């Protein structure tokens, strides 16, 4: 039987591709740079092809190397799932689960998710990671995460999604300007609506769900967090739209802000789970999704 490439060397290759630097990749793998370089050279010898073109100052991945990296990511993710399955001894709600979550959900929901999980499933350990949707999807595809908790819809091509509930939006405005809420959006002052930076998917969800067609009403200043939005509006500079879960978590405590429900019943973001289609932990993810749905303002259909 032909000698197969080692998983360790494939792991080195994937991290080198991610870091695009031998020193950083070696640190990420907790090995010396020479060990990582030697491992990749051994991998090339075992596979009988060149994966990286090198000179004394730089390197680049060959076309074959790029393809091998993609296949190696999938393989390493499957090996991790196989290991998790073995460690849980066939018990769905046990073992370790690496869960990623976006910043507009994590501060308001993850604490309750962890506590409820510990109570219902004491043998299941959740390892948490907070990041943007784009980065989390990349980590899921690379096998660095097992499951994502996101706001939908987002482009999840190649992954499976499960809607677990909805999170309604509410208008948030200073109490002294509350009369503005009675007006149609078209009659609000220009640049009076504050939203998050574009990389936060909640901005697109709010624009779509709240039907904010007139972009002149949106202030060009873009906040980096919901807490910053609250501070801007509390200063009397305008208004914003916040998800119910943030309001329920006390984000407006200590402010002079008022909340108002939107007449449009479709003004909400959908909350869902995302996982790889090749996973062997389908029962685990679905069970966890049902539990999370119980914690949301409105459970999905």
TrEMBL record:
Residues 5-62 form the HTH lysR-type domain. The keyword Transcription applies. It holds the Pfam family HTH_1. One of its GO terms (molecular function) is DNA binding. One of its GO terms (cellular component) is protein-DNA complex. Coiled coil: none annotated. Keywords: DNA-binding, Transcription, Transcription regulation. SUPFAM superfamilies: Periplasmic binding protein-like II (SSF53850), Winged helix' DNA-binding domain (SSF46785). CDD domains: PBP2_OxyR. It comes from the Bacteria. Belongs to the LysR transcriptional regulatory family. PANTHER family: TRANSCRIPTIONAL DUAL REGULATOR HCAR-RELATED, TRANSCRIPTIONAL REGULATOR OF OXIDATIVE STRESS OXYR. This is Transcriptional regulator, LysR family. It comes from Ferrimonas sediminum.
